[in-house]
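I wish you would study the pair of lines that follows with an eye to the fold:

===
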Amino acid sequence: MGERKIIKINEDKCNGCALCIPNCPEGAIQIVDGKARLISDLFCDGLGACLGHCPQGAITVEEREAGQYDEVKVMANIVKQGGNVIRAHLGHLKKHGQDNYLKQAVGFLKEKNIHVHLKENIDSRDKCRTSLSGCPGAKVMDFRGEGNLKAGKGSKTQFHSELRQWPVQIMLVPPLAPYLNDADLLVAADCVPFAYAGFHQELLEGKVLLVGCPKLDDLGVYNDKFTQIIKNNNIKSITYAHMEVPCCFGLVNIIKSAIAASGKSIPFQEAVISIKGERLK
């Protein structure tokens, strides 16, 4: 054991918002007893990908005696979280010029016969995860008390937005976001708002929105996210709105399993939308 750079979390400043967690692909941080905690020196590379994502400024980097970072153990943890997290981690290593760790990570994937399509440049989602300056699109905002954004005077339509929070993407919503507690959740497959004209007034009104694609996104990550959300919040009800196509049913069992695992009694219902934009019974 020797001295090296490693993150330090100021418990007094940390409010448990969990924004640091999705921006630590290595899995070195967890929320324990309402605070972000460094759970293992072995998982923290000390490069500080999480720094710019803490609104409280509770995370810094210090040099202290710590166990040596272990890329193989990190990769064993990361592969369980799916392709997006693997890409984020590899992009993180590349961004900071950690060629040796990057070589170890790629070697681990080859050894385990895990194929992940790697881009020469980090894509926008990976930039959101790894940028030290933070991604504005992931900033947690709760505007439930601000009223609806109605159409301006002279507008041809009287429709208004029922959106009550930001972000809405399942991958970006922290499990402890303040708007999740005591919420009625609307989980929507991301084609639904485009297909169904009454989305805001008939489905979203009074609910907190989570959006994702059960066909293109990593359902393993979704399973972990819903398990954490339901476990750590008082969820009043969950509605899953999805298209009638078979690939859109993928989240049904994940949500039901997460509810069952929590031991809580949470009402669950589906809203099925046809490809012609009709609500089916």
Remarks:
- Confidence is low (pLDDT under 50) at residues 120-134, 151-156.
- Helices lie at 71-78, 83-95, 99-111, 124-130, 192-195, 199-204, 219-232, 250-262.
